[in-house]
Structure formats: C-alpha cells, structure tokens
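Researcher: Checking consistency across runs. Here is BHLH domain-containing protein again:
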Amino acid sequence: MNQAKALPPALTAGLLERRDSTMSNEESLVGLEKTPTQVKMRSASRRPKKVGKKPALPAHVVQARQCHNDVEKQYRTRLKQKFERLLAVLQASKVKDESGGEGDSEAPDCGYSRGEVLDFARQRILALEEENRRLSDQVQHLDRRFTIV
C-alpha cells in the first residue's frame, strides 16, 4: 500500500507558463484555471442528510451558521484548488523528465487523493535533491579537470 500511483503523462501537456517574476504565485500560473479537466482530484461521495423536525432557531443563529458554512466551503474550495495546482505542476515536471515515457496501466481519468498528491510531491522533491547533488558533483569534477589542464 506504500506504493504511489504513476502519474499519467497524457494529462500534462503544456499546463504551465511562467510569467513576470514580480507577480505572486497565484498570478504566475497560467492555464490551470482554463483547463480544470486536466487534473482530477478524487472526492468523497456525499449522500443527502436526512432532514428531521428541529425547533426553529433565531434568525441571528441561522445567519451565523450560514456565514460559517460559507467560509468553510470557501476554505475547502481553495484547498482543493491548491492540491489540483500542485498535481498539475508535478505532472508537468514528470512529462518534461520522461522523454519516452513509461507505460501507464492506469486510465488517465482516475482521480488522486490528497495524500497521493503529497506523496508525489515528496518523491519529486527527493528526486530533485538527488539531481542537484549529482549536478553539483559533476560541476566540481569538471572544475578540477579544468584547473589541472
């Protein structure tokens, strides 16, 4: 169960463009809002609640609950969008790294849980750290060769 799902490369063609560096992170990602079907997060199914007879509540309590529910819904929506953006970035970087690509056994329309997205991000960070170490060693080796000659 510890194995993460492979990222389907069919979902990731050209999702991101960098804009001017003075813009915020929200403004610097282009194309993600325009293509919401490119990434798909898995969501829990929700059944309608059974509505029973409840005593009438004062109007200010009903309004306070509604405001709280609206704020919570906005929070969940923003969090979901952040996870979708993270997944899109991970998939785009995965496509750039794979020249030929691996055979994915999964259908491209399957969704990913938030935990899986975080696992993908962790794996990507570790891979980038390893690549950074390898390139740093290569630069040091070339620098030593250059100073000897």
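Researcher: Does this match what you'd expect to see?
Model: One thing to look at in this run: Residues 87 and 117 are 6 Å apart (CA to CA).
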